[in-house]
Design goal:
alpha+beta; binds 2-oxoadipic acid; binds nickel (II) ion
């Protein structure tokens, strides 16, 4: 076995950087967004020394500038399972299952990401990956046409798949292979201004659902956005129009809080881009957009149930989904309903609503039999919020919709199908809650060991 394998975390970091550079040149507005976020983050850190100290203690400050997620949509089971193999080379595993059909988007999804806290620290790059569900389309002739078009394309270069196979056979790639792999894999995510279908076919696919045209009519699953992480999304949202960027009406997710939970997201509208269709008709397509996110503490099953309940409550008080017309009323509802969600870390910890990491304070002399509560009360151990690394289905649906721009929403029978998704993927998706629990447990075990206290 070769000892010269590059750590997958390093390959992921290279790839994330290459993807960002490519997207900057493809969508210059993304560069504007990066600038805006960097300035908001610097201002927030200067104004909130306690936040800056917390991010320094957890190490998050170091990953902040490189942190981003992207999203792609694939068309077939084979594309999805090859995507899994390609992401595995970069240390990214499928985590979580998201059903978007209740929101009128005919896809289901997972997030490819690193799973261990040390790897997340090295590169938190994640890709929200959706699989088109042709079975939800009731027009049989169109369904077959779409399937035929998809079956004829290969979204990966031969070399990318060869190197993925080499990674699987050897258990790793050396530096030359890894660098070549990054360059080859990048091709899959490029924008192609030439469609593989005629204008008439495009219009037919588009007429069924804009998303179907986006997935089926092109050579590959172009990256449709890249999202930097901001420390103050309300400020970033307010700054967008000042820089001539037209922002989405409402920020998805929880309301502003002292102790942020889960994920808040906003985006700017997709750009209209020139396309040449087969037969050389000229036209356009809108798919690619920009997004900003703010991440907070990961919630336990109990915390998540409370979040889902309060979000439902706020949404039930407006008619339909939040939009330009009811944005203010919706944000007020959200503030009101989330008053019931404790907003300090002590309470979130004591009530078992969120995940944390435990750290040593440096104070020695713990009693060998002491329990966690005592160790915290006596100042031997402190805890810091464990950041949420995943996505939210209701928020994702809002992001999809704002950039698909469809006024009339499709109605699908609500049938989440994790088993069918996993069959297409060729693997099970990991349970995100188990991953947070593992990280929390590891941090506690390390503290107890260092203090010479029996775990129990
Ligand atoms: C993905 C939308 C979901 C997010 O951050 O929730 C998403 C898409 O439009 O393909 O990226
Ligand atoms: Ni996104």
């Amino acid at each position: 076995m070769s000892q010269n394998f590059v750590n997958p975390d390093q390959i992921r970091a290279w790839f994330s950087r290459a993807m960002s550079d490519m997207y900057k040149s493809e969508v210059p507005l993304y560069d504007t967004l990066l600038d805006l976020v960097a300035q908001v983050n610097a201002k927030t850190l200067a104004a909130q020394p306690e936040l800056a100290a917390q991010l320094a203690r957890t190490g998050e400050i170091e990953r902040l500038d490189i942190e981003r997620h992207g999203a792609i949509r694939v068309g077939t089971a084979q594309e999805l399972s090859n995507m899994r193999r390609v992401f595995a080379v970069m240390g990214m595993q499928p985590v979580g299952y998201y059903d978007l059909s209740p929101a009128g988007v005919p896809v289901h999804s997972t997030a490819f990401r690193a799973t261990h806290e040390a790897s997340l620290q090295a590169s938190p790059f994640r890709v929200f990956t959706s699989l088109l569900r042709l079975e939800l389309i009731d027009d049989e002739a169109l369904r077959e046409k779409a399937a035929r078009i998809l079956a004829a394309r290969q979204i990966f270069t031969d070399r990318a798949l060869e190197l993925a196979a080499r990674f699987e056979a050897q258990g790793g790639l050396d530096e030359a292979d890894a660098r070549e792999f990054v360059a080859e894999a990048l091709h899959t995510f490029r924008w192609h201004s030439e469609a593989t279908v005629s204008l008439a076919d495009y219009q037919e696919l588009h007429g069924q659902h804009r998303l179907i045209a986006d997935v089926v009519a092109f050579k590959g699953p172009h990256i449709n956005h890249l999202t930097p992480r901001t420390l103050d999304i309300d400020e970033a949202q307010a700054e967008m129009p000042r820089r001539g960027v037209s922002a989405k009406a409402v920020i998805e997710g929880p309301p502003p809080r002292k102790c942020p939970i889960l994920l808040r997201q906003t985006s700017f509208k997709a750009l209209e881009e020139a396309v040449r269709f087969a037969g050389s008709d000229a036209g356009s397509h809108t798919a690619r957009f920009g997004e900003i996110e703010q991440r907070g503490v990961a919630l336990t099953r109990k915390g998540r149930a409370l979040y889902d309940h309060l979000l439902d409550l706020a949404r039930s008080r407006i008619s339909g989904a939040p939009n330009e017309g009811n944005a203010d009323a919706y944000m007020r509802n959200l503030q009101d309903s989330f008053a019931a969600f404790p907003d300090d870390y002590e309470q979130l910890h004591a009530q078992g609503l969120a995940y944390f990491r435990y750290f040593l304070t440096g104070k020695q002399g713990a009693e060998p039999g002491a329990d966690l509560q005592t160790l915290i009360a006596q100042g031997h151990i402190r805890f810091e919020p464990l950041v949420y690394e995943d996505f939210l289905p209701v928020s994702a649906a809002g992001i999809f919709q704002s950039n698909l721009g469809d006024k009339a929403q499709a109605e699908y029978a609500q049938n989440a199908s994790q088993a069918a998704f996993e069959q297409a993927l060729g693997a099970k998706v990991q349970d995100e809650l188990a991953l947070y629990q593992d990280t929390q447990d590891r941090s506690l075990a390390a503290c107890l060991q260092a203090l010479g206290v029996q775990a129990g």
